[in-house]
Amino acid sequence: MKGSIGTFLATLLVALFTWPCSAAPVVPGLSNKHPLSDSQKGELLLGELRCIACHGRKGAPAPLEKIAPDLSDVGSRVAPDYLRRFIASPSASHSGTTMPDLLTAETVDQRTKIANAITHFLVAGSPRKFQYEAIEEVSEGKALFHSVGCIACHSPRDETGKEVTREGVVDLGHVTAKYSPLSLGDFLFQPLSVRLSGRMPDMKLTRGEAKAIASYLLRKADKKFAPLQTRDELVTFGKKYYQQFNCAACHKLRDIPAAAVVGDLQDANLERGCLAKTPGKAPHFNFSNDQIKAIRIALAKRPDPISDQTQLATTLTAFNCIACHVRDKFGGVAEERNLLFQSDAKNFGDDARIPPPLTLVGAKLQPVALKKVLFDADSVRPYMFTRMPQYGEPNLRHLPELFSRLDKVEEVKFSMPNSESPNKKERERAQEMREAGRKLLGNTSLNCVICHNFNGKTPQYNGVELLTTTQRLQPSWFYHYLCSPNTFRPRTVMPTAWPDGQAVDKTVLNGDTHRQIEAIWYFLSLGTSAPNPSGVENIETKLFVTDATRTYRGRSSVAGYRGIAVGFPEKLSYAFNAETGTLSAIWRGDFVRVDRGGQGSGGFHPASKHVALAQDVSFYTLENEKTPWPLRPVMNKDQRENPDPLYPKNRGYQFKGYYMDDASIPTFMYRSGEIEIEDRSTAETGSEKGRLLRNLMFNAPKAQSIWFRALTGKVEVESKQQFKNSELRLSIPPTQALVRPTSTDKSVSELLLKLEIPQGKSKLSFTYELLK
Amino acid sequence: MNYSNSYSCKLLWLLAAWTLSLSTAKAEEVGSRWGTEEREREYYPIVNIPIPQNLVIEAGAFCVLPDGRVAVGTRHGEIYLVSGIDKKRPTPTYHLYATGLDEIFGLAYKDGAFYVTQSCELTKVTDTKKNGKADRFETISDAWGYANYHEYAFGSKFDEKGNLHVALGLSNSYDSFALFRGFIMKVTPDGKTQALASGLRSPGGIGYNEHGALFYVESQGPWNCSCSLRAVTPGSFQGHPASSNWYKYAPEMGQVPTMPKSGSRIVIEKERVKQLVPYAVIFPYIRMGRSITGFVVDRTKGKFGPFEDQIFVGDYTLSIIMRATTEQVNGVWQGACYPFREGLSTGILNLTFTPEGNLLSGGTNRGWPVRGIKPFALERLEWNGKIPFEIIRINIEPNGFKIAFTKPVDAATGNDPKSYQISTFTHPYHGGYGGPEIEQTTPIVKTAKISEDGMSATLVLDKLIRGHVYDFDLGKLRARDKDTLLHRKAYYTVNEVPAAK
User: Fold this and answer.
1) Quick check: A601 and B46 CB within 8 A?
2) Nearest chain B Cα to A645, which residue?
3) CATH class of the B30-381 domain in this structure
4) Interface touch A558/B7, C-beta < 8 Å
5) According to the model, what pLDDT value does residue A689 have?
6) Is the predicted pLDDT of residue A12 greater than 60, yes or no?
7) Is A13's pLDDT higher than 80?
8) Where are the extended beta strands (E) located within B298-442?
9) Which CATH architecture group holds B391-494?
């Protein structure tokens, strides 16, 4: 404890000594190309520096105020040593901080004492304690820091981790002393939960990404953090000081009241107090001359009602929107940071990497779409690495309305047809527009789909999803934009299909520009049911088997609706018809293709050439050798209703499911009559031919015989235990075998095996060998 | 798909069906919006639940586990156990529990096992090795046919006696080619399967209403001019006669229902067809959904706002969520539906309330027209504590209706009958696909009286017509704090009128 106080004093002395060199409070937006006059700048500073928290200002509209950080759990977030130093001398600990020095009038000793007590008070009141936990530096951290948008307000760093920009950015030199990797990661994950002001926005980081950036920023951190044992008497003093210095005016904390506001800034002497050259007892903000000048100009005149223009300009500057976005003649990415804005769609040029302009954005976006981007973390440009931050809805609630009041384009009306109208002409118009819209988007006309996603499908590039159009954009803006993309986005790669209002494709709707754009709007309003324009194809999904056996259920032409496909890592697969208890197909090569496009219910089909087997029930007790095999009911165009709906349950069969072993190989369970059957097949390894080994395990309450229909086709007898048809060889255990023509087609035969099943458990093995 | 003997024949057939379905796939308009999304988000913001990039989660069924995780069954036949859905800033973990199942539209959980309704059967799924991966899939019931393209199966949760219910869609919109398609089957705790009801067309979900009675969701189509919530009583006939051919396999269902007359009215036919149960809540087509789906009752004890013990139901096409309330009058179920939230990102297939009382929705947008453009999504609706001015519920009275509100209504508008614009319509009951709203009337609101606390209004109408949907537009009402209704519309289906007390 003593040691740390000693170190602290030494640091403080150094800090005080270097104090005059530390920077004035930084409002990053003001270092960018902002639209504010000096007076407006002064107004902005009054809000960013919270002058109104202590001072009255009669007749002034409420400024946009930067809410100070929530200190209720600061003891877990910030290292106690840092907290002490920062309170004693904010600007010396964090160059450019907006926190004023409140202890200027105190002696060095007294400062130390007060800062220490307040620290004890804050730490004691925090539910959780500060913990240091070292983490490995994660390599993505550096790339994330430089790509997602942190560098809009903070300095990029060189190879050694040194910040390269000094002016106008929020310095991060202090974070190594302030945070642990754990607490910085938590903070970056949800910054708005402690800094309600939104000036440090939520960058939509995942927990992992937040941790990675924390690990990058803290890689040079001093890892010796001393835990603070709070002392009751210091805590009591700390609380007293917290009140005495009116910390609660900005940092609301539990039940501690803020002092009443003093005086009226409008009548104040602007040469004294906080604005004095050498502030006495007043809080010391370390203002630059430029800042003092702006505040004095703002306060020298009577406050005006805030115009929409001014409020918008102030908001975009306070939140530094202008670091990334252009609006009218201000804002935009600064030259020295330009190349840090990147994307993975290089072909789209700057549109893909530089955030879109905000000029006319209120006329461009539907109000609800704008709110989704601002408040609900929506994003529509998957290729852009820079993220649209979230500033917290309470902070920007006024912004969408402002945009919408200020931004206007000439109104264009689309006449949407009613495809379900009783009027035939109207229905035909709908049809015509639908076809025209589809044609225009496709690769036989304007080929919009070559760059843009359509219904989640990416023909070549990954451009903004076309089906978002009618939900995001306003029709009038859409019309003007399509007619002249360059007017809205200079140098955009989006081509003009209606140069000077003249349609390039004259074949559609007589080349009428208005009707063509209207048709595109209508077609896109159909949503996901809009059929694919030419050039967009549905994706077929192929399932693969890697290191473990894979089991997949679904309807299939090779296994019936209750089909199951089993694929082995040995590149052998089979299909099982669970409705009849039948091994119904075998194939080598890739596993299955599944139908998951459109209405597809995930039905499967072998991904390579397969050998099909019969799908009728496999086990049955024949009365005698002449009894025909009980075949599946046949449904076709003329007989669509199942004539034997209980088949094969009425032949004694019931499927009971399956279980997996450690290698995920399934064993099917079913019953035939009173015999319980377990059916497990494996792929024989090391064989060039595909060989499937099938083990049937029986459990019978008494000894009995049952017939097994093992093979159909042109069955040849090779030996007593070996049979084949044109595609498959089957090896069987010694048992009675009967080859006879099938009951429906005499040119095809069936191999029936009479299995003698003893009482209790028994097992028989079969081998299926693919011949081709 | 049929089962002819030659494989090549089958393949040709399959290809033909495929091409056919592509060429006839018709773009449909999804209807206009309520236009209330912007205001809705002031009270019920939507939080996207991020899904890792390599996963496709087309949620078809949800089940909240005792440990607080949410199990999600998908159209791809997978079950994910998801933790962290309720976190303020969710970055949930997805644990893959089971794979290889066939389109999951029902998920219940009991004693460590899942009871999964997949298209082919009801399956008990367990992890016997306790390694977090399901390894045993036992068939509990497959006592129905499954052989045609459109045959979806929807499963309920357990009822208080431990039964599960499975609603089986027809083979297509018009026919029942396979056993019990168009039936609801009850599966008892000892594994027995019984037929419970017939006459379904294309169910979209099955469960229990706010009073614990079994209900299912029916889709617009033949014999259904709008989507509806329908009450399922044993032996009931739900109106689409295609499934009557299977009664010989279900003696427990009793007599085959008399064939309803196409073009008649439901109130007339239910006198002729004694098993016929009328639509309990009609969702006027397009204005209130085009294909309503899974529903859930708010049992959050107020965590989700002022709509406790009400039904929340999603819609696939319009990517919206609506509310419904039901009551039994003269032994017949009926009730009302209300707009609730639009602007979800994908077609909603199912809903559940999370342990923290948020409403989780999920689904997909492929195959049919859907307004939300995401191919799949999980989204959480949460109540932010602000009370919107809404109609809580409408109940029928002998001479009119009682309407409850979330906030006190001012007396000037509340006691003025002109603030209550009511019109009615009925649908033909017919075999055609969908159908118009007909026989419109405009009832006279004789008196309107606001209760002392302003929280409800009692309306006396000149008459109440059985079989009509009462379309309420209360846009002229103002709350005492001058607020306007967030949703001015509500629709009450009158099957029965209570006797005067």
Assistant:
1) no
2) B179
3) mainly beta
4) yes
5) 75
6) no
7) no
8) 311-315, 320-329, 332-341, 348-353, 359-364, 376-381, 391-397, 400-405, 421-426, 438-441
9) Sandwich (2.60)
